[in-house]
Specification:
By secondary structure, the protein is an alpha/beta fold. It contains five helices and six strands; from the N terminus they run βαβαβαβααββ. The protein has a six-stranded mixed β-sheet with strand order 2-1-3-4-5-6, sandwiched between helices.
Length: 154
């Protein structure tokens, strides 16, 4: 599994998470987008970069808007269109302290693995239900372009 985080997890907590996940019996790769791209990189450039990565990356983001202030499409629209599996963290959870976000990601690893191994290009929402975290399918709205299914890795 290859995870790419944006502002939903601060870089220092992402580095700690990456160190822990690398030590698993089946290692997981995790990195923060700022380790690869500049602050302010547009979502379309980010998506093009992600598409070039092997093994395929799953994007985990705090982004939930359909369009930017300039009117450009955002990650929740671009990722499914380009066949990138993505998880969007609910706004309420993004307001938590860094350690709580770190803990949330540790708890959600089994659900993230299931999403990663599922059909490429699906998008999900990470939200709370009572005291638990849930990752649920978040289909595109009716009338929106349907996701493109990516080819399996060779």
């Amino acid at each position: 599994m290859n995870l790419l985080f944006d502002e939903c997890l601060p870089p220092r907590w992402c580095r700690l998470l990456a160190r822990i996940l690398r030590k698993r019996k089946v290692p997981i790769s995790a990195s923060h987008m700022l380790m690869h791209l500049k602050q302010g990189t547009t979502d379309d450039v980010l998506v093009e970069w992600v598409l070039k990565q092997q093994p395929p990356m799953m994007v985990i983001s705090a982004d939930s808007g359909a369009r930017s202030k300039r009117g450009d499409p955002r990650l929740p629209t671009l990722c499914p269109q380009r066949g990138i599996t993505s998880v969007f963290v609910a706004r309420k959870l993004c307001q938590q302290e860094g350690f709580e976000k770190f803990r949330m990601m540790i708890v959600c690893i089994p659900a993230l693995e299931a999403a990663y191994q599922g059909t490429r290009g699906l998008r999900y929402r990470l939200e709370t239900h009572g005291e638990a975290y849930h990752i649920r399918a978040w289909p595109l709205a009716i009338g929106a372009p349907s996701p493109t299914v990516a080819r399996p890795p060779s």
